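Narrative progress, year one. The postdoctoral researcher (J.K.) led the effort to move from monomer predictions toward full complexes, under supervision of the PI. The following entry was the first complex the group processed end to end, covering 230 residues in total.
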Amino acid sequence: QSALTQPASVSGSLGQSITISCTGTSSDIGAYNYVSWYQQHPGKAPKLMIYDVSNRPSGVSNRFSGSKSGNTASLTISGLQAEDEADYYCGSYTSSSTLDIFGTGTKVTVL
Amino acid sequence: EVQLVESGGGLIQPGGSLRLSCAASGFAVTSNFMAWVRQAPGKGLEWVSVIYSGGDTYNADSVKGRFTISRDNSKNTLYLQMNSLRAEDTAVYYCARRSQEYSYGLGYWGRGTLVTVTS
């Protein structure tokens, strides 16, 4: 039950766009469109931002978008705002385990 | 409104037992996929145990044989019985729900309860 691979940190200036990658295998991201993204502020519970690769739950800003190519999924945050500073985790269904898997997590810093 | 409220965490010695509870409101626990997800201090998210609406349960390898997930229909509550606790089980434990509206995404989370295993 190994984790999906994310960069440890990504930073960007206010108003810029950033992209977080999430690399898996042909048993998870590469095979299924069940990729989710979660935002977590310090001391808070995770919040679902994207599900099924590119769908946003109601109430989530359209500045957040998701995509996938091969074994890698991506989360793009456009028009970066101060409140976007948080940890972000990807997640995916996997056929190689009875449990889904999370990514290693990425700390987003707004400069 | 959907709410998940965890309780039962605390300080426990290695080898001890704890039972976590997750009181749900706004939906029926028995009709949904429910999960326990934990986060060790300064670390990432980790799946612990899940229970499907049909009753099937699955556990992470790290807790197999020690943790048991269950639910009480009458109390609309999810549980996690944790036995033979180890220092590496120290974490915030979150209860989460997967609903049809968000497919495989965990759309609803509780605030979490902290379990600290230390002598």
